[in-house]
């Protein structure tokens, strides 16, 4: 009904909207600049906001603009399980076979990140969506995935995306 009234050719708020077609709000542009800096620094970042505020859409816009030969984006939205569940999901997204022990999965993911950087000259980015559902022990283990060369090297950019309650938990 409103499409015809306003002369719209498609639904303006669908999830299928292309990243370049998102409304260029000042806050969104600021978030894009900050995410770009975070990715360049290979740091740990946090994007929080209310449900439907555009957190994931903004992240999608930033990562679709990245050169696919220089960046490897791993997106995980299963955040309600334990550390093993999350490690298995990350391993699957990296295209790795899953191990049976937590330590083996941890080592396998870290080796994949190192291999991407050293051999493929590719910067891995791990995006964990719906991160407000992560258990405290899972949050701690995720942070440990960013520790390389006794914390002297940044090899993995970790981005946690979730609702506002996540900020209060951290």
- Total helical elements: 7
- Globular, elongated, flat, extended or rod-shaped: what is the shape? globular
Strand tally: 4
Average predicted confidence as pLDDT: 90
Measured distance between first and last alpha carbons: 44 Å
Q: What's the arrangement of strands in the largest beta sheet?
A: 1-4-3-2
How much of the sequence lies in strands comes to 5-15%
State the order of secondary-structure elements, H for helix, E for strand: HHEHEHHEHEH
The gyration radius over C-alpha positions equals 17 Å
Structural class: alpha/beta
Helix percentage: 40-55%
- Major β-sheet, in short? 4 strands, parallel
Uncertain stretches of 5 or more adjacent residues? none
Quick synopsis:
The protein has helices at 2-6, 26-41, 55-64, 83-93, 102-118, 136-144, 165-169; strands at residues 44-48, 71-76, 123-128, 157-162. With 170 residues, it is of the alpha/beta class.
Written overview of the protein:
The protein is built from 7 helices and 4 strands, in the order H-H-E-H-E-H-H-E-H-E-H. The chain has helices spanning 2-6, 26-41, 55-64, 83-93, 102-118, 136-144, 165-169; strands at residues 44-48, 71-76, 123-128, 157-162. Strand 3 (123-128), helix 6 (136-144) and strand 4 form a beta-alpha-beta unit. It is globular, with a radius of gyration of 17 Å.
């Amino acid at each position: 009904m409103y499409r015809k009234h306003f002369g719209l050719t498609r639904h303006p708020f669908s999830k299928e909207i292309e990243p370049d077609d998102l409304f260029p709000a000042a806050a969104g542009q600021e978030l894009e600049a900050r995410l770009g800096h975070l990715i360049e620094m290979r740091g740990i970042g946090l994007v929080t906001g209310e449900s439907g505020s555009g957190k994931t859409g903004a992240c999608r816009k930033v990562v679709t603009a990245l050169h696919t030969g220089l960046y490897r984006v791993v997106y995980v939205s299963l955040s309600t399980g334990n550390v093993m569940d999350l490690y298995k999901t990350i391993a699957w997204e990296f295209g790795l076979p899953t191990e049976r022990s937590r330590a083996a999965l941890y080592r396998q993911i870290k080796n994949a990140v190192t291999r991407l950087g050293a051999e493929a000259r590719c910067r891995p980015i791990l995006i964990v969506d719906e991160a407000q559902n992560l258990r405290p022990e899972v949050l701690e283990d995720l942070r440990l995935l960013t520790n390389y060369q006794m914390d002297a090297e940044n090899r993995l950019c970790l981005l946690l995306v979730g609702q506002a309650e996540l900020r209060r938990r951290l």
